[in-house]
UniProtKB/TrEMBL annotation:
Segments forming domain HD: 25-128
Entry-linked InterPro entries: HD/PDEase_dom (IPR003607), HD_domain (IPR006674)
Protein name in UniProt: HD domain-containing protein
CDD domains, alphabetized: HDc (cd00077)
Domain of life: Bacteria
Amino acid sequence: MSENLIQNTVDFVKEKLEGAEAGHDWFHIERVWKLSKKIAATENGNLEVIELSALLHDIADPKFHDGDETLALKISNKFLESQHVSSEIIDQVLFIIKNISFKNRGEVPQNLPIELKIVQDADRLDAIGAIGIARTFNFGGFKNNLMYHPDIQPKLDMTKEEYKKSQGTTINHFYEKLLLLKDMMNTEKGKEIALERHQFMLQFLEEFDKEWNVN
């Protein structure tokens, strides 16, 4: 694996995501990249595919681009071709970018490659725990969503389109997605890390409820 390729990818992503919403900025990418390498150390996968996918997975998140799910694939493909990456590696990276998302989980093919499982675990781990709580409230503020409303119940089992258009409260997002992620981890290391982060979210929600109701 070329160190120049990884560094060039880092530089490219930093430039593309300058000024991005703070929950989906370069620092999110960096954390997912580091988590991917941590998990990959316990699995047998192609590290080049894993690192490139982790770095490029949110290069054009559809929710910030009018729901366009093709833009990230186009940008990533063009960049990787400019770096003379083999078509085989490019295809694997694009497959991961296309199938990593929580909202697309109903459309994902069976028998996923270990590289996707690793990067998906890393991405989902960054959505839970203390960082996950911070990112969730940051995005809720970005959308000007209510933090919580006792009369608005979480919507479970939303379709992909309902999920994309959801204007629910930030607290409901924990029940609609974040608390589900622990049981969706693919790797043993992912499951291990998720367990601790999941418990932290439960503690936070319990404290939030006590303070909201002034117990």
